[in-house]
Design brief:
The complex is a heterodimer of chains A (185) and B (178).
Chain A (H helix, E strand, L loop, with lengths): L8 E8 L3 E12 L2 E3 L9 E11 L3 E8 L11 E9 L4 E9 L2 E7 L6 E9 L8 E10 L3 E10 L7 E6 L4 E10 L3
Antiparallel strand pairs in A: 2-13, 3-12, 4-9, 4-13, 5-8, 5-12, 6-7, 6-11, 9-10, 10-11
Chain B lengths: L5 E9 L5 E4 L9 E11 L8 E6 L10 E9 L5 E8 L16 E8 L8 E10 L5 E10 L5 E7 L6 E11 L3
Antiparallel strand pairs in B: 1-11, 2-10, 3-7, 3-11, 4-10, 5-6, 5-9, 7-8, 8-9
The chains are: A mainly beta (185), B mainly beta (178).
């Protein structure tokens, strides 16, 4: 049987307005990466990131890396992920890894006119030193054809991750990237 | 900080061992669409347990009739993916993930559509991420429905394997439409 609310930290009860809180928007233009640092300055349990009009200087896909030193360097091993990708051409592909140098999201672009990637991802527990850092994501890319991807990833190391990086697999990256905190999460 | 239209309604934080949490009176006529975050759920013991969903009706009673349908894609980092689907079930299985003991755990985002409407079914979409005892990651992409044209006032997150959880936070938000 469920325990009474008094056994839990029960909060709220009436609508409390404005809980998707914009922390920062970065507009990249032919940059090597997009880095969000100083996460501890605006501490949330769950973050939400939008990616709009991602374009790259070469055929490339965007990846996520975490940092435990506020962006001085980004961790380059130990990532896991699994995602499903589908295309308007009709192919559906599973992709996964238990030991990669980054979290792949299949968020793609190339140099052709109109090519871009758009999507979002959530980040969980980054600032909790006792927990793993998780992400869930969904996106659409206009590439050689239109394609979607959804999936999850984790860096299974219990430590504080106070920065993250969006990096292209090749070339440079352009686009709009917004970081939000989900208050009360 | 910019103010948006994601409006906080309620949070319930689990800090003691339990197998069930009711989030009561979180759905209302104020919203059609709700967002639920479940963050950092982990079990008391080392065995994984499935975190399931049932709705609470307008009187707060648990809806356990065989009116739940669901389907999801189970995406593991170390093996091939699996499709799972069921109709006419008494609950929505696994939707909040299958966590085990910290630092492994499960987190998810769920959207609920029309739960308070007495003329529509209550639909859910969800995406989650978790790791098991071997620290292997699994993600899920989920759809589900309660096939009842009745008002729902809240929901229950529960496990039924006698593997209680003692950590986790549920937050419910309304998506303002005007």
């Amino acid at each position: 049987m469920p325990l009474g609310a008094s056994r839990f930290g029960l909060l709220g009860g009436v609508a409390d307005l404005g809980k998707l809180e914009l922390i920062e928007t970065q507009t990249a233009s032919a940059d090597s990466s997009v880095d969000f640092i100083d996460l501890a300055t605006n501490s949330y349990n769950v973050y939400f990131v939008t990616v709009n009009d991602l374009q790259t200087s070469a055929t490339s896909n965007a990846r996520i890396k975490f940092s435990n030193n506020n962006g001085t360097s980004f961790i380059a091993s130990g990532y896991q992920y699994a995602f499903q990708r589908g295309t308007t051409g009709g192919s559906f592909v599973e992709t996964n890894s238990t030991s990669d140098t980054r979290i792949k999201m299949s968020l793609l672009s190339d140099t052709s006119t109109g090519s871009s990637g758009n999507g979002y991802f959530y980040l969980y527990n980054l600032l909790d030193s006792a927990k793993y850092s998780f992400t869930t994501f969904q996106n659409i890319s206009s590439f050689s054809d239109e394609r979607f991807a959804f999936g999850s990833g984790v860096l299974p190391t219990a430590e504080t991750h106070n920065a993250f990086q969006i990096q292209p697999s090749a070339g440079t990256i352009s686009g709009n990237f917004s970081l939000y905190g989900i208050a009360e999460s | 900080m910019a103010v948006g239209n994601l409006e906080f309604i309620k949070s319930v934080e689990v800090t003691t061992s339990t197998s069930s949490v009711d989030v009561t009176d979180c759905f209302s006529a104020n919203y059609d669409v709700y967002k639920i975050t479940t963050n950092d759920f982990s079990t008391v013991g080392t065995l994984q347990t499935a975190l399931d969903l049932r709705f609470l009706d307008s009187g707060g009673s648990v809806v356990s009739a065989s009116n739940y349908d669901y389907a999801y894609l189970n995406m593991k980092a170390n093996t091939t993916f699996a499709e799972v689907k069921n109709t006419n079930q008494t609950f929505i299985d696994n939707i909040f993930g299958v966590p085990d003991q910290s630092p492994e755990g499960a987190s998810s985002v769920t959207y609920v559509f029309n739960p308070f409407s007495s003329s529509s079914y209550s639909f859910v979409t969800n995406q989650s991420a978790l790791t098991n005892a071997s620290s292997v990651m699994k993600g899920q992409k989920y759809i589900g429905v309660l096939k009842q044209t009745a008002t729902m006032s809240g929901f229950r997150l529960f496990e039924q394997s006698t593997r209680p959880f003692d950590s986790g936070k549920i937050s419910v938000y309304g998506l303002a439409s005007n």
